[in-house]
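Predict the 3D structure for this chain.
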Amino acid sequence: MKTTVMAHRGASAYAPENSLFSFQKAIDMKAQGIELDIYETADGKLVIHHDNNIKRMSGANVNISETSLDILRTYNLNGEWGDSFGFVKIPEFIEVLDLFKNTDMTINIEMKEGSVNYIKAIDSLVREYGMQERVIYSSFDHLKLTRIKEINPENKTGALYSFNMMYPWIYARVAGFTALHPSYNQIYMYEELGIDYVKEAHAHGILVNAWTANKPGIMRHLAEVGVDNIITDYPDVALAKIEEAEKAKNIIL
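Done. Predicted structure below.
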């Protein structure tokens, strides 16, 4: 299968990360999917942001988990973009689902922190929108992946990690995960050992979605070795590098 592209926090090289602007940009650039991060507010609302604290993007030292949605929406999360995008509100999860419901794009939901009802609430909204087949749940906390599968065994899951794990494809298969989400340098690390990471993962029925590849040469190499998805801030560049790799392969064939 041809490698596809997930826009990391949306097309975050071109608009404020995890904003409706960056998600729309990913649609416009024809990425096949997006990656986003989800938190729960103090009043139980689901919002999209990478950090629990919004200081990096707004300058305000405010924790999402300790703040209501109405208060959070008063902060401008424009990051380093200044006035380029006007007032950037933290998006609710339902706003993102509304944006993508009429597309065929995959949504990679990275689960962060929340109450005991947090994971159930995420799954419930995805079901309400009928988008279960288009969602993959990822997390560095692999117990969260187990919990989302307990809620619905058909839920797709991707194990995020960046450390040097021995035989990750065996771990993923035993845990019942759909995919591995390694830092892209893991692909290179295994190559140095003479092991084809992607081939081994595929042989065990595990997909490989590598993050966060932003350099063109790395993107092309990941396409050449056949990762299933490249997660990147630059979806347009990744799509072009995938096409280059495909054309070169066809010439060789």
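The longest strand covers residues 33-40.
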